[in-house]
């Protein structure tokens, strides 16, 4: 079941369907962003999704999913194909730069919902790509 939920999560992400993603996370979801502070709760995750939808257009490709036997933990490796649309504070100026970045996410699941999302990518690689 965990692979099905994570597959639905990534399908919603790729469709730009923040509501679809939010429907899969628990009310108290913990969202650990690469090199950033943890966001606690569905409302904070919704704010993150809204911000990402304005600043970036991304598609995740080559997704490979892994899950433990009891369905409480999952992981995914993928490649982010993106476009930097609007300048994010503290980052280089956005000019529609395109980037390709390997990344991964780790998930905890309970009662059919995602309760933790942790995402990792190489921020310095991304900065180098959008600064070129």
Summarize the structure in words.
- It is built from four helices and six strands.
- It has 132 residues and is of the alpha+beta class.
- It has a single domain (2-131), classed as Nuclear Transport Factor 2, Chain: A (Roll).
- A six-stranded mixed beta sheet has the order 2-1-6-5-4-3.
- A hairpin with a 5-residue loop joins strand 1 (25-32) and strand 2 (38-40).
- The protein is globular and about 45 Å long.
- The termini are far apart.
- The relative contact order is 0.20.
- The model has no long low-confidence stretch (mean pLDDT 94).
Could you say what the CATH architecture is? Roll
What amount of the residues lies in strands?
35-45%
State the separation between the terminal residues, measured CA to CA: 42 Å
Radius of gyration: 14 Å
Poorly predicted regions are none
In the sheet with the most strands, the strands line up as: 2-1-6-5-4-3
User: Per CATH, what is the topology?
Assistant: Nuclear Transport Factor 2, Chain: A
Features:
Nuclear Transport Factor 2, Chain: A; 132 residues; alpha+beta
Structure summarized in a few sentences:
The chain is of the alpha+beta class and 132 residues long. It is 32% helix and 43% strand. It has one domain (2-131): Nuclear Transport Factor 2, Chain: A (Roll), CATH 3.10.450.
Write the layout of secondary structure elements.
Elements lengths: L1 H14 L2 H5 L2 E8 L5 E3 L1 H14 E12 L5 E12 L13 E13 L2 E9 L1 H9 L1
Parallel strand pairs: 1-6
Antiparallel strand pairs: 1-2, 3-4, 4-5, 5-6
């Amino acid at each position: 079941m965990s692979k099905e939920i994570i597959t639905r999560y990534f399908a919603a992400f790729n469709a730009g369907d923040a509501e679809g993603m939010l429907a899969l996370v628990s009310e108290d979801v913990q969202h650990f962003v690469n090199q950033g502070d943890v966001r606690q709760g569905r409302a904070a995750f919704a704010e993150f999704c809204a911000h990402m939808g304005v600043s970036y257009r991304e598609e995740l490709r080559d997704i490979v999913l892994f899950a433990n036997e009891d369905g409480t933990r999952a992981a995914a490796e993928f490649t982010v194909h993106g476009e930097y649309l609007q300048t994010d504070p503290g980052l280089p100026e956005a000019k529609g730069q395109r980037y390709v970045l390997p990344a991964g996410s780790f998930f905890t699941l309970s009662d059919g919902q995602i309760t933790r999302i942790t995402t990792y990518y190489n921020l310095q690689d991304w900065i180098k790509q959008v600064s070129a």
